[in-house]
Amino acid sequence: MHKRNKRKSKYLIIILILMVLFFILFNIQTEENSKNGTTIEKVNSKLYQNYQSENLETQQSTNSILEDNAETQKNKQSTTNEQNVEKEYIETEFKGYKVCAKLNIPIINLETYVLEEYSKQALLTSVTKFYGGEPNKVGNFCIAGHNYGSTNMFQNIKKLKVKDEIFLTDTNGNKFKYLIYDMYTVLPNETRCLSQKTDGNTELTLITCTPDSERRIIVKAIHD
Question: Which structural domain, as residue segments, surrounds residue 169?
Fold first, then answer.
């Protein structure tokens, strides 16, 4: 009986020792896993940060390329527009009057300065700006002139036809070509020809009297 109890005690001690060893090994393994997990998280975090950094640099590089391309296209367009405009520098004064443009209509051999001031006296000297903004700008630049026989007046504009060419040079030296798209007559009190609603186009309107002075001859042209 005593021997049997002694054996049981021995088995219990062995079991306890095994349990302690198992517990120690389990704790060691858990700690290692925890360390490994932390290391993995750190690695993943570092990789994510690198990924974000690379994406940011890539995006910045892409944006820079797009901006450079846009600027290049803008410069090319600007250069193209400048190349398409013929240059001709003109006098800024004619017979004591300030000049705002020069008008040339080859088909009727008309070449005349457009005076900036509209007055009865100025109209006896040359054609004048009547209404609108600046010459060769978006809008409707209107020029009035008498139908006198002088070489710099509007006597012969009634001979013009649709699609005839008109050239207007501003004081910056920009020479624009216009094509006539309409011609008609109106009563002196009709002003629709002066409208500035051009849908973003650059237009030109010539105005003079009919031979009997009862109506006004209107020539409408648009920048080609």
Answer: 87-223
Instruction: List C-alpha distances in Å: 136 to 25, 43, 105, 112.
Output: 92, 66, 16, 16
User: What value does the mean pLDDT take over residues 1-17?
Assistant: 64
Q: 112 with 11, same domain?
A: no
**pLDDT tens across 164-217, in order?**
999 999 999 999 999 999 999 999 999 999 999 999 999 999 999 999 999 999
Q: Which of 84, 115, 142 is the last residue of a domain?
A: 84
Are residues 79 and 97 located together in one domain of the fold?
A: no
pTM: 0.64
Give yes or no for a contact between 104 and 167, defined as CB atoms under 8 angstroms apart.
yes
Looking at 84, 104, 127, which one is the last position of a domain? 84
Query: In angstroms, what CA-CA distances link 209 with 108, 141, 146?
Result: 17, 18, 7
Same domain, 124 and 172: yes
Query: Alpha-carbon dihedral of residues 224, 133, 102, 212, nearest 10 degrees?
Result: 90
Concatenated DSSP letters of 106-167: GGGTEEEEEES--SHHHHTTSEEEEESSSTTSSEEEEEE----SSTTSSTTGGG--TT-EEE
